[in-house]
Amino acid sequence: MDRAASVEHCIREGLLPEELCRELRLLHLVAGVPGYRPNCTACTLLACPKWGWPALLRARELARDAAEDFFDEFGGLWPETTATVCWFPGSSLPVHTDDCKEYLSKRHVSVVIWLSSQGVDFEGGDFFFEVEGASGESREVVSPRAGNAALFRASERHGLRTVLRGARLALNIWFTRDPSAAEDSRLLGPEGLVLGWGRGLSQRFFGAGPQRTWPEDEASGRLAKRTLAQANLPPRGRALRPRKKRSRCKEGLQPVSTSPLPPSRRARLAVAAHRKLLAVPGSKSPDWHGGHGHGFFRLVWRRERQVRAALPRWHQHGLLSIGPLSSPHSHDCGQLGGRSSALVEHNDYVPGLTIARGALGSALQRRLKKLADGLMTSQEGQLLNQSMRFGSDVPPWAYAIVRRIRRLRGFFTKPRAFDQLIARSPDSESEKPSPDFQQSTVEVPERA
Ligand SMILES: O=C(O)CCC(=O)C(=O)O
Ligand SMILES: [Fe+2]
């Protein structure tokens, strides 16, 4: 019997080497922003600063090889979204499938690689598959360990039990069989160039999201220290010293804010991360003699140059499934004009919004339309029906639009981070709410 037809998932031990897990933990620490789910931070490949790309791309390739091998789809899977997600206490994910929405329907295979270990870095947070057997449904529970991975079809039912303590970090990679939905077209398209490459210095170090505006909180401080302790960085100053491990688990769930670190702390962490990532083993880097700031800037610049120079090579070797960097990304916008209302969807379970084209007055409308068109154009220039962005994939000005929508309508009952932007065409079929996700939808009437 065909293996793929009989076995739908597997756990691969040691898919990522410890060194790579460490790099990704550091990257998340520097570039993660609130998003994806309540009590989570996320860092997507699209919006992460480009010095983080090599680690993410390497991990992505290992995941792709493993998935193509296991599902016997050699050369057939394209990465659709790559993101690290950190689950803090109180976060969980009920039984779901990863293709349960229209805008997720291009996801065909899921790979989750854990970057931290249960019992060491966090408590709770078991991963499980819901498997159907002769005697009804049962759960196959997996204890996440750093470097191990779950490979499964996106249509398979699975979930994540509540995290009770610590920080549970994972790398999610969803694959599609449709190359036009591959994330690389966005990575090197105008959107990626704006988000991933960044303009100002701080964008280049931390990513383009709103991370600079969130205040510090205790949970991210703890995560920072633990991650740094695990990363074996040379201690430098107080912020980098590992803390004693906490011996007792706190009773019950601790509600936490998932705010990332303030700029000063992030800068120190970024410096530490770069020292680790860019250091040539066994040699003293002369770049550091100029002191922290100066040497750091030069290292970032050098890493960026390396990434930029490597892009054609990566592309040539099939690491990037896209056209040349300079390919024009244009299409006929005319057919999209004349929309009169926007659907703003407020989803109770997954915090976020769906924004369609139109409405909101002419200036915002133009910007929103531009964003939506950018998000909803495939590599071939075709318009997609829906598209989703979260965390720092959402440009800061789009956050401003959402704040304005909030003020305008006042329909948000709870303050929440706008961490997901779902742009979809008004022509797309309205989706049926999945039983796993509660939704409420609000029509925003056209403004005069
Ligand atoms: O982190 C995990 O173990 C699973 C996460 C998951 O299923 C998801 O994000 O869809
Ligand atoms: Fe999932």
From TrEMBL:
Q: Which GO terms describe its biological process?
A: collagen metabolic process
Q: PROSITE patterns under this entry?
A: FE2OG_OXY
Start-end of Basic residues biased regions: 238-248
For this UniProt record, the keywords arranged alphabetically read as follows: Iron, Metal-binding, Oxidoreductase
Q: Name any one Pfam family assigned in the record.
A: 2OG-FeII_Oxy_3
Molecular-function GO term, any one: metal ion binding
Domain named Fe2OG dioxygenase is located at 79-177
- Which InterPro entries has this protein been placed in? Oxoglu/Fe-dep_dioxygenase_dom, P3H, Pro_4_hyd_alph_FE2OG_OXY
Region Disordered, as annotated, extends over 234-265, 423-448
> PANTHER family this protein is in?
LEPRECAN 1, PROCOLLAGEN-PROLINE 3-DIOXYGENASE
Similarity comment: Belongs to the iron/ascorbate-dependent oxidoreductase family.
Protein name from the UniProt record: P3H2 protein
